[in-house]
Amino acid sequence: MTVGRRRGAELEEAILRAAAEELRASGYAGMTMDKVARRAGTNKNAIYRRWPQRAALGVAAYKYVADARTPTVDTGSLRGDALELLRQANATWSSPHGAVLRDLLAAAADEPALLELLREQAGGGALSAAWFTLLGRAVARGEAPPEAVQPRVAALPMTVLRGEYALRGVPAVPDEVLVEIVDEIYLPLIRGRGLPCPKPQPAG
Amino acid sequence: MTVGRRRGAELEEAILRAAAEELRASGYAGMTMDKVARRAGTNKNAIYRRWPQRAALGVAAYKYVADARTPTVDTGSLRGDALELLRQANATWSSPHGAVLRDLLAAAADEPALLELLREQAGGGALSAAWFTLLGRAVARGEAPPEAVQPRVAALPMTVLRGEYALRGVPAVPDEVLVEIVDEIYLPLIRGRGLPCPKPQPAG
DNA sequence: CCTGATACGGTACGCCCAGTACCTTGAGGA
DNA sequence: TCCTCAAGGTACTGGGCGTACCGTATCAGG
């Protein structure tokens, strides 16, 4: 009746796919080991043989669907680039895919090892690199002072966007907020860093 | 043996105290209803008669210990005020008290009602008000341009600090980072917003 | 083709915890 | 005093994580 007993990579694929589907359908909280096993047409043993804990499976399932595409933009202006990158990030986090990631982050609060992995995905590596190159290009064009190229400054819009997520309940920040972040915060900050700027109150 | 059967407010106090102690001892995940009941010298019924769910008890216990002190600072300069407020926030979030709050936030990801309450505590109301008055004073002193008085701008240092928490595993951000946030981001931003600033590249 | 080793499948556990039901017992008010 | 209501005690359902055990299919090697 069955097409034979699956083993190794094939079974692993099936489990990951099932876990990913469960994540999408019920969120991380609803991703039960039994349900994953049933959906994958196997049982919990096969899962626990590969991942020691539910959280580990969750992370694996997330990485399975997360195509680690490095965001790239080049609109020709700092403003355009920043806005585009923000929009991409906003779209990503607003998708069900982003919801899963947020659930996972919340649920893994007591699993240091998993937090590490997730943190990377959530905006550690590739993303901050994108902001760096973006700023670098702006400097080359003379749009930004070299002093502005600095980790905390470069990726500030993403930080503010995350803050916006924290304030509102759920993502999907309206586009005008993204524009505001760029025009009222990022660009003025870059400008402000360009000034040798005598303090307005040179007291002291 | 016992001092008699406790009722009403007295019992409620005891439960809240016990729940708070459990939170401190084992985090939210370890705050079991049975354990709270046992520690309070009562049983789960008395708890469920007052709070319908575990999460509700968690929030109540948190609010029980959280003395909602409104932070106030006035060092005489924008830089000093901002730094002081950041230091206070950092101290708060680094304390076990802050750890409980973070646990709670993570655990309540699927309880919209609780999220609301927590969000308020986490920096919604009183805190952003403090940043507003701080900036207002700076404007009055001529240290900052009036255009800078804007929600997202005013509380930006807190947003960046939260971002720092997200990147590192656990709070307790070193003091020099707080200084950097103020000197490299907040102050330059305020400065930059003061300029009518012709765009460096007026293309278009 | 036969024989192991390995891993899959099935099932049944143990444990813990949330939340509920039911009854007994004490305390305070009328 | 008696009555009511809440507190205490205990047991139970339901469900989820993680484990154990055992039969069985697949694969590798001779």
TrEMBL record, chains A, B:
Residues 32-51 bind DNA. Pfam families: TetR_C_11, TetR_N. Keywords: DNA-binding, Transcription, Transcription regulation. PROSITE patterns: HTH_TETR_2. It comes from the Bacteria. SUPFAM superfamilies: Homeodomain-like (SSF46689), Tetracyclin repressor-like, C-terminal domain (SSF48498). Residues 9-69 form the HTH tetR-type domain. The keyword Heme does not apply. One of its GO terms (molecular function) is DNA-binding transcription factor activity. This is Transcriptional regulator, TetR family. It comes from Pseudonocardia oroxyli.
